Amino acid sequence: MLLSESGNQVGRVIVRHGKYVVQEMIMTREKTHWLWTEMSKCRTLFNDLTRGNVDDFTANILNKHSIWFEVLDETGIIGVIYFTEMYQIVDCNAHVIFFDLKVLEKAQLCRAVAQWMFNNFPLARISAVIPKLYRFTISLTRLTGFKKEGVRRKATLMGGNWIDEVILGLLREEAFNG
What we know:
Elements: E1 2-3, E2 9-10, E3 13-17, E4 20-24, H1 29-40, H2 54-62, E5 67-73, E6 76-84, E7 93-98, H3 107-120, E8 125-131, H4 135-144, E9 147-158, E10 161-171, H5 172-175
Antiparallel strand pairs: 1-2, 3-4, 4-5, 5-6, 6-7, 8-10, 9-10
Helix pairs in contact: 3-4
């Protein structure tokens, strides 16, 4: 494990792309609190069942079937990319959050992370299930190479409204083409 200049643990770098670095996220108590605070600022990030539930959030972060990465630029952490349901072995679910709100400029970075996942795990595909109201995230996912596979109607409750979720997938061979 590496140490930063401040003496904090630094995760292994998995991707460098332009001004961005993606590294394993070392989940300390302070990092978990910081992440909860940052993610809570996004009013639509959590659904009505998970909003304000720090215990569920912490359990998700510490789940042994998930992998969390932090995205950094020269200013510090600007986002997280994480994969859940790794127990499926050949498929997992991808999630991205960029706190700097410059989502669409990160398509090539996200493609590089997807390629890293395919190179390091026996995945046949990576899935993404995104609430329909996250238009920029859906656009980013499509720019990364994911293909729309369908819609789960009224799949999540957000702000008292049932929201459809868009299902997207990226196959191993698609990640290395285009």
